[in-house]
Design brief:
flat; four-stranded mixed beta sheet; GMP Synthetase, Chain A, domain 3; alpha+beta; 7 helices; 10 strands; single chain
């Protein structure tokens, strides 16, 4: 580690790409509840008033894909027609059974394909994850909480965070800058938004890590107002946030995304196994940082 600063970002649960990840994973959950031997590879695309689901599912019981998608959209807060994407959006389903060629390999060897993946851990945080990505996650989680509990009642679904951390001799010593972006009621001025986010999101999150920043080091909606977010302004697709899903760019990752894939898809299960190995090496004080590569050949 020879860098002085490192920056990572995260996205809120209502971010378009994360909407897709959660719909795909909700299908996976439903299939595995029906049968642990289900095979699932589901991709989702969301855009203005449309949800498109495609892929392969082999499951002994019928799955109500449309109902699952609408349930996720409702949970994420897309209930107002002004968002241009709601629980009433049209759902298109193009899902068929898994290829017998893939099924043959998975049934025989447990892995449906070749692949390489990485796992990483470090002792910067109690989660054994890099500090920039963990703070980024906690910030968007707190923003979502403020919206859901109406403690900041004018916030709307969607949002992002970015955190810049300063390092010295490989150790984090300060948080230097935070960026938060979140859609909101247009009647709210940027100054009010920034102050509310600083007081209710930034301060309590950073306190848990032993850091603080002045309000002027927070950038809130840097382009000004952000009225409408979500899929009507930014089309979402499953698997486009793999850096957010892993280590915030501080470690290498494999070539595949996680969401919507059953355990025979080694993009997911292999990455989880590699993380498990790396985490236990660090947790047992065998290393401050550890990166593990696995390959299925």
């Amino acid at each position: 580690m020879n860098y002085q600063y490192f920056t990572s970002e995260s996205v809120a649960a209502g971010h378009p790409d994360k909407v897709c990840d959660q719909i795909s994973d909700a299908v996976l959950d439903a299939a595995l509840i029906n049968s642990p031997k289900s095979r699932v590879a589901v991709e989702t695309l969301v855009t203005t008033n449309k949800i498109v689901m495609a892929g392969e599912v082999t499951c002994p019981k019928e799955i109500d894909y449309e109902k699952i998608a609408r349930r996720v959209v409702k949970r994420l807060g897309y209930t107002n027609p002004i968002y241009g994407f709601t629980i009433e959006s049209k759902v298109f389903v193009y899902i068929h059974q898994q290829s017998p060629d893939i099924a043959r390999g998975a049934d025989k060897d447990g892995a449906g394909d070749q692949g390489m993946m990485f796992g990483y851990a470090c002792n910067e945080t109690k989660e054994l994850m890099p500090l920039p990505i963990i703070i980024s996650h906690r910030l968007v989680e707190k923003m979502d909480e403020m919206r859901e509990t109406k403690k900041i009642p004018y916030l709307r679904p969607d949002g992002k965070s970015e955190v810049k951390v300063k390092y010295e001799n490989g150790k984090s010593i300060s948080v230097d800058k935070i960026i938060l972006a979140v859609p909101h009621n247009p009647k709210i001025e940027n100054g009010e938004l920034k102050h509310d986010l600083y007081k209710n999101v930034v301060v309590p999150v950073l306190e848990k890590f032993g850091y603080k920043i002045p309000e002027e080091d927070l950038i809130a909606n840097g382009t000004g107002k952000w009225e409408i977010g979500g899929p009507s302004t930014d089309t979402g697709v499953t698997g486009r946030k793999i850096i957010v899903d892993s280590y915030g760019g501080m470690a290498r990752i494999g070539g595949g995304a996680f969401s919507g894939k059953d355990p025979t898809k080694v993009d997911r299960s292999g990455a989880y196994a590699a993380r498990y190995l790396a985490k236990n090496i660090v947790a047992n004080d065998l290393a401050d940082r550890c990166e593990v590569q696995l390959a299925y050949v």
